[in-house]
From TrEMBL, chains A, B:
Residues 38-383 form the Amidohydrolase domain. It comes from the Bacteria. SUPFAM superfamilies: Composite domain of metallo-dependent hydrolases (SSF51338), Metallo-dependent hydrolases (SSF51556). This is Amidohydrolase family protein. CDD domains: Bact_CD. NCBIfam families: PRK05985.1 (NF004636). InterPro entries: Amidohydro_3 (IPR013108), Metal-dep_hydrolase_composite (IPR011059), Metal_Hydrolase (IPR032466), Metallo-hydrolase_Enzymes (IPR052349). It holds the Pfam family Amidohydro_3.
Amino acid sequence: MSLILKNVRPMAGAATDVKIENGKIAGFGQNLTGDTTEDGKGAILLPGLVEAHTHLDKTLLGMPWYKNEVGPRLIDKIDNEREMKSVLGIDSRRQSARQIVQSVSKGSTHIRSHVDVDTVHGLKGVEGVLASRDEYADIVTMDFVAFPQSGMLGRPGTVELMEEALKMGVECVGGIDPSSIERDPRLHIDTVFALADRYGKMVDIHLHEPAELGAFSMELIIERTAALGMKGKVTVSHAFCLGLSDDAYVGRMIEGLAENDIAIVTTGPAGRPCPPVKRLRDAGVTVAAGTDGMRDTWGPYGNADMLERAMLVGLRNNFRRDDELDIAMEVVTYGGAKLMMLDGYGLKVGDKADLVVVAGETIAEAIVNRAPRALVFKHGKVVARDGACLKAAP
Amino acid sequence: MSLILKNVRPMAGAATDVKIENGKIAGFGQNLTGDTTEDGKGAILLPGLVEAHTHLDKTLLGMPWYKNEVGPRLIDKIDNEREMKSVLGIDSRRQSARQIVQSVSKGSTHIRSHVDVDTVHGLKGVEGVLASRDEYADIVTMDFVAFPQSGMLGRPGTVELMEEALKMGVECVGGIDPSSIERDPRLHIDTVFALADRYGKMVDIHLHEPAELGAFSMELIIERTAALGMKGKVTVSHAFCLGLSDDAYVGRMIEGLAENDIAIVTTGPAGRPCPPVKRLRDAGVTVAAGTDGMRDTWGPYGNADMLERAMLVGLRNNFRRDDELDIAMEVVTYGGAKLMMLDGYGLKVGDKADLVVVAGETIAEAIVNRAPRALVFKHGKVVARDGACLKAAP
């Protein structure tokens, strides 16, 4: 079976037809022949969007509105969520399925999700997302991070659960603020990296610690990555410390990230210092973006639209020029693909036909208008059309 | 003619019907009788959204995509825009009409727009928006600010043009960074307030100056407001200086704003320090929000959706709780109404029937979901339905 996607403009360039065969891009041009056709109507063709940081197991999507009255501290939110999982019945399998369907409807073809692992709920979160991965393998590619949301060192048994999650097929070892939550930065970082090294996994650490405190954690992460030769396999999410006002210190961190091919994931947070995307990219650091938690007990925002995320990253980084908006688009496509170590991602002949078609004259316009995705392809097949996913959510 | 709007939930409260007669809210309850009905389908009823800071005369909406390659300095953007107005043919009447129609489709029933006044384009901008005000008076209420975008003191003739604009019916005297652009803070502020005093107009000053520099300008504004007894008639837009890290200094400014009933307008800017909305409101200061420039030569963002603006204000202020999102909604409704000195604004019997109906369970959900506006009423009549304005744009 082959399909001709007619009249699309790859990366907002010149119009062409695209031949899709065996789940791959088989060619570009006019007068291509195939078994079926789809009309791109002159819209922009992008590689599938990459959601590089979310929490599929904890969204409240499709559940009754949760009235947020949670206290101001981080620990208030963590404790509240652990409790609400039982009280509200936040089922990881059902909820992850709902968010997957919404993500695909918005053009994401790849998702990295953190999944809570703790001594109260054990591996239920992991089991749920693994089941959803199987069920939705035809419409999205995912990898997972075993995430010690409630802390690891202070809750005996957590490390063992994380180890179990890795054996079950989770791809990455997660970590959380080594000092401000874990109270023992050296031991936390060593434990995370030891797990990754033993099981041959990637690392993706939530680092919210601000300024010099976060920068110290970042140094430890860079040192361990270098010592274990884990170049290209480590990601730091949030990394607010890269928004430090000490320009020279930020420069030294960026150098360490570039040398060790450590990726940064940002949400483009409006209310906090955050990684300078253009500077990181100019230094050769991989930058990706994510929705983070979406409509959960932490907060009500988010719709899993990675074009909206590109807008938020753009607003946060004061991107106004078209060439700057191109960077925001790169972050929600190639940046995420690099971090997830995806093979055959892109718009070249032979690349996997994971694609999005969206109306717009330019890349910048696609980001600022965010038209409903006309077509989304996964494994060469149409999986969403006119903003709606063709596969149902529970 | 009377209309019964059935089954809506004012401010996301209990469901009721609403009688609308003679352009006003005539009553709430069941079993109301009227000439026609509209079905609210259980959606939320809000007073019309208030766009409190935009630039109707300079949007590129509906024009070919403008490739932004503008330089990084403020003066680059100002000079470029003045030139592009001629090169691209940015017609104030046509462009303001386009944005008005989009605003109304998103539920705005009131707009304050700044309008450029300078020695190159003279009063063309003002003439255009005044014509649009007449043409669209049936769907939106507007007031205008004569805005010296290119500077006032350094360009002889500008003050006279602003004076002319006020005589033509513009409601507010605008100002711009008194030190960083005008180079003479005392003279700039004195000139702005003298014009307002002489013609009995309001004041709305663009104040981008950061930190202590902006705080000094803010002090001058507070002093002049007090000296001239202009309580309730002065607005400071952007006011990044209120995001100063010197907590006590910010507190003194806020006290001055509250005492003199000076309003603050914010866009919820992601990339800059900005006014702390909750703190201002707790101190009794009126806070409103605006889109600012929308798809213009300054930048590509913006869609005139004041619910999206509420989201951005919420994200910027780290509003997560439902009671915090209520504040964000207040900012895009009652805050703007107060600043524009609107009479009869609200959801009480006797208030003007300028209303929005939008799907959602709670106020917070209305903001984070931003469903297409089901119905928008102006002067008691439906002016937009299912996200589309019933009056055409040029």
